[in-house]
Amino acid sequence: MKKVCIVGGGAMGGAIARRLASTREDLSVTVCETSAAVRESLCLVKGLAVTESLVDVGGCDVLIAAVKPPTVRRVLEQAASLSIGTVVSVAAGIPLRLVEAWSGKASARVMPNTPSLIGEGMSVVSFGGMVSEDQRSVVLSIFEAMGQVLELPESSFDAATALSGAGPAYVYLLIEALVDAGCAQGLTRLDARQLVTTTFTGAAAMVQQSTEHTAVLRDMVTSPGGVTIEAVGVLEKLGLRGILWEAVEKAADKSSQMAQ
Ligand SMILES: NC(=O)c1ccc[n+]([C@@H]2O[C@H](COP(=O)([O-])OP(=O)(O)OC[C@H]3O[C@@H](n4cnc5c(N)ncnc54)[C@H](OP(=O)(O)O)[C@@H]3O)[C@@H](O)[C@H]2O)c1
């Protein structure tokens, strides 16, 4: 049985751990977490082993570093002296060459997102030169349990971090704003939430299943002189596209600054 150790059981590490515990009985999963409160809540998850220190783990096939970027170096330098097959860092902005240099192990860099918790995640993956074909398929299978996986060159990571890593926050904000707007039009919060979330998943599924440009799909909803074009006109005039463009640019810049 392959052993996976996740260091840091917070928002991201906790989502990965919970998903693996519920879907991958063939893996032995241990979470290493310094916060007593987080450890306590992870102890309740069936199939997870929880410990305070990485030293207690001894060795593992795959170590996933899911701590905040400033803590990654300390964790990986500690991992260097342990028997570990592949080290995976999910930290924003930490380049693969540093993951390899600090850990001295075969390394991969992954940018997942929090919907991984329910198997609807998007993970972008890049492998370092020391990774064998076997190690590569173990890492891919771990992240495939959490949703879709896309292998990209590391130069695309700042863009991926800004789009899919941080993206759930943008979508939650849009959902919240639309639900509030629906409530202002007299709907109950529960009804508005169902209307908005189903519209998001339905529209996203149509884009995924279609080869058409989104403008063509948008045209299907936007009859001249109709209702939708009134709203689209407001969104265009007030600059929704520009706002999103700048938000993604800022997030990508921040990710690239963190690498320095
Ligand atoms: N959240 C996301 O949506 C997301 C998406 C993609 C990538 N990431 C990446 O995932 C990493 C973790 O982010 P997060 O949002 O999950 O942060 P988080 O919620 O703060 O989780 C990190 C956890 O690690 C614990 N910790 C700190 N030092 C530790 C150590 N030496 N050993 C074991 N545990 C330790 C922290 O405890 P204390 O709070 O007590 O320090 C905390 O519970 C970051 O590098 C981030 O860039 C996050």
Summary of the model, kept short:
By secondary structure, the chain is an alpha/beta fold. The protein has helices at 11-23, 36-43, 54-57, 69-79, 96-103, 133-144, 157-165, 167-184, 189-209, 214-221, 227-237, 240-259; strands at 2-7, 27-32, 48-51, 59-65, 83-89, 106-111, 121-127, 147-151.
Please specify the SSE layout and strand pairing.
Blueprint: E1 2-7, H1 11-23, E2 27-32, H2 36-43, E3 48-51, H3 54-57, E4 59-65, H4 69-79, E5 83-89, H5 96-103, E6 106-111, E7 121-127, H6 133-144, E8 147-151, H7 157-165, H8 167-184, H9 189-209, H10 214-221, H11 227-237, H12 240-259
Helix pairs in contact: 4-5, 7-12, 8-9
The structure holds NADP nicotinamide-adenine-dinucleotide phosphate.
Q: What this model shows, in words?
A:
The structure is a single chain. The chain is α/β, with parallel strands linked by helices and 260 residues long. It has two domains: 2-152, NAD(P)-binding Rossmann-like Domain (Rossmann fold), CATH 3.40.50.720; 167-259, Orthogonal Bundle (ProC C-terminal domain-like fold), CATH 1.10.3730. Helices cover 55% and strands 18% of the residues. It has helices spanning 11-23, 36-43, 54-57, 69-79, 96-103, 133-144, 157-165, 167-184, 189-209, 214-221, 227-237, 240-259, and strands spanning 2-7, 27-32, 48-51, 59-65, 83-89, 106-111, 121-127, 147-151. Strands 3-2-1-4-5-6-7-8 form an eight-stranded mixed β-sheet. Helix 1 links the parallel strand 1 and strand 2 (27-32). The longest helix has 21 residues, at 189-209. It is elongated. Bound molecules: NADP nicotinamide-adenine-dinucleotide phosphate. NADP nicotinamide-adenine-dinucleotide phosphate binds at residues 7-13, 32-35, 38, 66-69, 71, 75, 90-92, 111-114, 165.
